[in-house]
């Protein structure tokens, strides 16, 4: 159990530190080009790891359309939208908005999968929504004047939630890690045409050494190591352990953005983050079993 907690803590730390890392990458790399590059290398490295574990890598033909759709939402949509969103808003604020995704997933599972809307999920959605309202109150006039960044971040969270719902709709022919490889492949195939059309590579200058080093961290840490560890652990995780990564990542993301990027710390961000964490906790905490009524 101790080793499992340490591994999940590492995942939370790496995913949290990825927020300021991506913001730094965006100082020299266009968002879609950056994501397309990361998707491509992550797919290749994860394929090597999956192959070394003896896993099958070829999906059944019936899974290919579902892989494209799920990859569109789970990897491509979330990552591309968060990169674009960070060019338009503070990273600390972006991270808070993005981590409404567990509560959104719970809400969408009720709407699309017919899961039961219990008190925990209702409370999680209500608290998460209230947390966004507190964050919006930080500078409501500026939000009304230029809402694009926060709106894009909300749609990024919604994309991730839709991807998780899509992931639950079928029994896949591949194990989790090999399936993730194909989600990254699908995302790379979607990203490169957009990058060439919207961000032509020829006018771009070669990134500096610090940016290249950060890109290596972004690919090997948050993408390859985290996804590899998560898929290895996911079958053995209990909810309380899994919650460590989900709760740690936004805390690290917000605090590291304030320390490394100089994002201002406001009481609205503090309260909003606390409310988002509460919504994540409620979403991931196991439901209490209903005791049978006495006859």
| DSSP, total strands | 0
The domain tally reads: 1
β-sheet strand percentage: under 5%
Class based on secondary structure composition and strand pairing: mainly alpha
Q: How many whole angstroms does the radius of gyration measure? A: 19 Å
Q: In percent, how helical is the residue content?
A: over 70%
Number of helices: 12
Shape: globular
| Order of SSEs | HHHHHHHHHHHH
- Poorly predicted regions are 290-295
The N- and C-terminal alpha carbons lie at a distance of 40 Å
Give the overall average pLDDT.
88
> Mind summarizing the main beta sheet?
none
Attribute tags:
0% strand; mainly alpha
Describe the structure.
The protein is mainly alpha-helical and 295 residues long. It has one domain. Helix content is 76%, strand content 0%. The chain has helices at residues 2-25, 31-52, 64-86, 91-98, 101-113, 119-136, 140-145, 148-167, 176-198, 209-233, 239-261, 267-284. Helix 5 (101-113) crosses helix 6 (119-136) and helix 6 (119-136) runs antiparallel to helix 12 (267-284). The longest helix has 25 residues, at 209-233. It starts with a helix and ends in an 11-residue tail after the last helix.
């Amino acid at each position: 159990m101790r080793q499992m907690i340490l591994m999940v803590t590492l995942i939370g730390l790496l995913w949290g530190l990825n927020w300021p890392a991506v913001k730094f990458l965006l100082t020299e790399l266009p968002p879609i080009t950056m994501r397309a590059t990361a998707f491509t290398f992550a797919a290749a490295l994860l394929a090597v790891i999956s192959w070394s574990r003896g896993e099958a890598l070829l999906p059944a033909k019936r899974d290919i359309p579902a892989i494209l759709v799920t990859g569109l939402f789970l990897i491509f949509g979330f990552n591309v939208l968060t990169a674009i969103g960070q060019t338009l808003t503070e990273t600390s604020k972006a991270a808070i908005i993005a981590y409404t995704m567990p509560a959104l997933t719970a809400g969408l599972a009720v709407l699309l999968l017919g899961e039961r809307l219990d008190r925990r999920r209702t409370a999680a959605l209500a608290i998460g929504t209230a947390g966004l309202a507190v964050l919006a109150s930080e500078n409501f006039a500026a939000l009304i004047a230029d809402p694009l960044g926060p709106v894009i971040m909300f749609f990024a969270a919604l994309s991730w939630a839709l991807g998780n719902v899509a992931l639950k709709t079928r029994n896949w022919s591949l194990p989790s890690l090999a399936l993730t490889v194909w989600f990254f492949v699908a995302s790379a195939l979607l990203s490169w045409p957009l990058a060439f059309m919207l961000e032509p590579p020829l006018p771009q200058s070669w990134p500096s050494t610090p940016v290249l080093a950060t890109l290596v961290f972004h690919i090997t840490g948050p993408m390859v190591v985290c996804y590899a560890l998560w898929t290895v652990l996911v079958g053995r995780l209990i909810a309380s352990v899994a919650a460590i990564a989900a709760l740690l990542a936004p805390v690290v993301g917000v605090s590291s953005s304030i320390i490394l990027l100089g994002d201002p710390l406001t009481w609205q961000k503090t309260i909003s983050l606390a409310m988002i964490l509460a919504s994540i906790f409620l979403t991931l905490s196991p439901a209490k079993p209903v005791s049978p009524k006495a006859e």
